[in-house]
Amino acid sequence: YENIQKTVQYLLSGNSGELLLMTVCVVIGLPAPLLPIHLLWINLVTDGLPALCLATDLVDPAVMQRRPRAQHERIADGGFLRVMLLTAVLTAGVSFAAYVYGLKFATLELARTYAFTALVFAELLRALGARSATRPLWFMNMRSNINLLAVIGASISVQVWSQHSELLARFFKTARMSYQDGLILLGVSAFPLIVLEIIKSFQRYAVQDWGAEDRAGGAATPSAVSGRAGTRQDARRRGLGSQIPAATGVVLLAFGGGWLTWSLYRGTAAHYVTQKIERGSVVRIVTASGTVNFATIARVEPHVSGVIRALYCDVNMSVTAGQLCAKIDPRPYQIVVVQAKADLTEAETRLENDKVNLAQAQTAFERNEALAKRRAISRKALNKSRKTFDRAQSQMKRGEATAAQLQTVLHAAEINLGDTGVVSPIDGTVIARNVEVGQMVAESSDTRPIFLVAAELTVIHIDVILSEKDIGEVKLGDKVLFTVEAFPNRPFAGEVIQIGPSPRIIQNVAAYDVVIRASNSDLLLKPGMMATIGIVVDQRDDVFRVPDQALRYSPRDLAVPNASGKPNASLDGWSRLWILRDGKPAAITVQLGLDDGAYTEIVKGDLRPGDELIIGGSGGVLAKQKP
Predict the structure, then answer these.
(1) Coil, helix or strand at residue 305
(2) What residues contact 506, with CB distance under 8 A and at least 6 apart?
(3) Do 111 and 97 touch, CB atoms closer than 8 A?
(4) Which of 196, 215, 413, 493 could disulfide-link to 336, CB 3.0 to 4.6 Å?
């Protein structure tokens, strides 16, 4: 019951502090101190594992010797709510103070980083004291919940690391701050924990001999327990609620002292985070994703319908052009061929008879024509023989046409019979088989092919779609680096070989097809794999480069003279960098070149190898940076 109560109170206090911080800033007209990603991360880190560790905390050994709680006692009574609100005010106050300081002496991005980090630290540290509603931290056995200590230490380490990782900083939209600033925020964030534990210590004077009992592990005689039970229960019921006025005074004094300290040390000497100027490569990359396919794939499809009678090829088998891979049952087509041959033979026989009849009719007509010239026969007999000859010629032509037609039918039937043998159209390797023996296949372009044959497995193509914004930077021959999910730690290389001239419209946005060719000598890449691609559109090697963070830095005193001794100024087309010379910041103007998102090329400027480039710093307590 106590574990449930303290876990619920820990969760509600943290959420109330976040809500209070956001509400106060909105009401007084300040920008939102936390972004949605910050709130999501805070709830994930502080409401997850720490709450589980509190819920599974060891039970007090003397719990069975205490007076039973009242029958109608609720988990969230008045004392519970007062403690929750006090805790929320303390955690929100620490984060709000860090945020206001950031707004006054730094940028909005850095102020949000301060508020974000302070709130995470405060809630994690508060979990240490949340283990007990009456015992101060210094009377607890910290080794009894090693899991909670490990979770708090790991969470604080991850939070600090997120401020120094470029990837996580972009993800959380935070600014880089020094480890010194992180330690300061960690110390300030312990303020709510310290105040709450001091308040719990005041209860020691209300409940006599309380510390000795706890230090003894909770063991006590039944008489002693019954004598003190009512007093202890009353103190616990009052909780921290009776100490709220004193706590409020402590909070106000602490905030006032902190503000006075910041004001006094705001003008102390600045400490700069520097990095040596170096030569290196600046590579501009266009990122995209695409699908892996083989360079040339042939579909082996049936040209006739029928039942698969035999299969002679399988996946990963090398085949040559014309090699038989499958056999469709030929018997229906053999019957058609036999019938066509019989019809053709019959037609040829009739044609031979027609030829004989034509020859006889021609002979009779020629004889009668000669006799008619000598007036040996009548004209009627001559006309009759001429008609007989004409009919024989017509019959001969019809017979020839019929024979030619049946010859064509026989040829088509023989082709269909030959097509019952399914052969590979190219040399290559079978990469897919979609049928089994006994399965029915049909001659149709809509059906799946029987086989897929890749001409060359050692070369693959990647089909990519680029937006109108990126296509202008990509050109034929650009180098490409890509990875696939199956081998995330192995990069593959390729090049752009085709850029589609015609756009495709996707949601009213023009997109262009790009084809990338890459080597697949190890045969690791398979069709259908999704590739994460980086197209190298520009690259400068062995040039002066500076991190982009240095271009955003500006010291608090912008009146610092530049390297030439003149007041700080920027020229058109030039940018300003800050370097540390003779222990003092100096502004120099430089001409920028290629920018790859992490580093920027320096084309011209008073830079020398070994110069100390200022990328961050702290003046007084924390530093000011210019976005």
Answers:
(1) coil
(2) 465
(3) no
(4) 413
Residue 53's nearest CA partner among 146, 120, 123 is 146
Q: Are strands 530-547 and 599-605 parallel, antiparallel or unpaired?
A: antiparallel
| 498-524 pLDDT, tens digit each | 998 888 888 888 899 999 999 998 889
Q: How many CB atoms lie within 10 A of CB 242?
A: 16
Residue 220 pLDDT: 35
**Bridge partner residues of 283 (DSSP):** 539
Contacts by 102-106, CB closer than 8 A, 24 or more apart? 102/622, 103/30, 103/31, 105/266, 105/556, 105/619, 105/620, 105/622, 105/624, 106/622, 106/623, 106/624, 106/625
Taking the C-alpha atoms of 592, 594, 599 and 603 in order, what is their torsion angle to the nearest 10 degrees?
Answer: -40
Contact 526, 517 (CB under 8 A): no
Structure-token match 């497995």, residue found? 457
Residues listed for the chain: 627
Closest alpha carbon to 432 in 550, 309, 533, 301 = 301
**Distance in angstroms (rounded) separating the CA atoms of residues 304 and 337:** 14
pTM of the model: 0.46
Cα separation, 154 vs 462, in Å, equals 41
Sheet containing 440-441: give its strands across.
421-423, 324-328, 306-311, 440-441
Report the DSSP beta bridge partners of residue 467: 511
Buried b (16+ CB within 10 A) or exposed e, 110-139: bbbbbbbbbbbbbbbbbbbbbbbbbbbbeb
Sign of torsion over alpha carbons 350, 356, 360, 365: positive
Give residue for tokens 């708090």. 152
Distance CA 213, CA 436 (A): 81
3-state helix, strand, coil in the chain (%, to 5): 45, 25, 30
Torsion from C-alpha of 368, 373, 374, 375, nearest 10 degrees: 80
Q: Contact at 8 Å (CB) between 129 and 145?
A: no
**How far apart are alpha carbons 85 and 220 in whole angstroms?**
34
| Residue 621 contacts residue 266 (beta carbons within 8 Å) | yes
- Measured CA angle at 502 (ends 496, 506), to 5 deg: 95
At residue 553, what is the residue type?
Y
Count, in order, helices (H) and strands (E) of the chain: 16, 20
DSSP character for 571?
Answer: -
With H, G, I as helix, E, B as strand and everything else as coil, classify residue 618.
strand
Phi, psi of 323 (to 5 degrees): -75, 135
- Taking CB atoms within 8 Å and a gap of at least 24, the contacts of 517-522 are 517/295, 517/459, 517/460, 517/461, 517/462, 518/459, 518/460, 518/461, 518/462, 518/480, 518/482, 518/492, 518/493, 518/494, 519/458, 519/459, 519/492, 519/493, 519/494, 520/457, 520/458, 520/459, 520/460, 521/458
Residue 610 and residue 69: Cα distance in Å, rounded?
A: 71
- DSSP character at residue 32: P
Task: Count CB-CB contacts under 10 A for residue 161.
Answer: 10
577 contacts 613 by C-beta, under 8 angstroms = yes
What residues in the chain have per-residue pLDDT under 50?
Answer: 205-244, 246-247, 249-250, 252-255, 257-268, 557-570, 619-627
Nearest 10 degrees: Cα torsion 384, 388, 389, 391: 140
